[in-house]
Design goal:
globular; single chain; mainly beta
Length: 127
């Protein structure tokens, strides 16, 4: 079955950048649409971005459009989230997730559409 492992989180000043990575071990990401979600303390897990298996389609939450970019390298079995112009409202644990579908379905923003999850990586933004 394998697992997803996120990395790249950390502390950054407001306005700074981070790049998160999600690597798959024991399974290939090449046949899965992928998503990034985030969860702040005491809040629900929210959709951030998603990408189809061939990277032909990407979707973003309104709160991150123009600042975050999702991409993937199927040869490296890795999905990325480039986060620029980080804001005080961005801190959270960021999770990557793999869909059972190759394509982004209508409910791509719903966490229930994803079947495999990583353990998360913490992103902290200082003002």
């Amino acid at each position: 079955q394998g697992q997803l492992v996120e990395s790249g989180g950390g502390l950054v000043q407001a306005g700074g950048s981070l790049r998160l990575s999600c690597s798959a071990s024991g399974r290939t990401l090449g046949s899965s649409a992928m998503g990034w979600f985030r969860q702040a303390p005491g809040k629900e897990r929210l959709f951030v971005a998603a990408i189809s298996w061939g990277a032909g389609r990407t979707e973003y939450a309104d709160s991150v459009k123009g600042r975050f970019t999702i991409s993937r390298d199927n040869a490296k079995n890795t999905v990325y989230l480039q986060m620029n112009t980080l804001k005080p409202e961005d801190p959270a644990v960021y999770y990557c997730a793999a869909s059972a579908s190759m394509y982004l379905r209508d409910n791509y923003y719903n966490s229930h559409d994803y079947v495999y999850w990583g353990q998360g990586t913490q992103v902290t933004v200082s003002s």
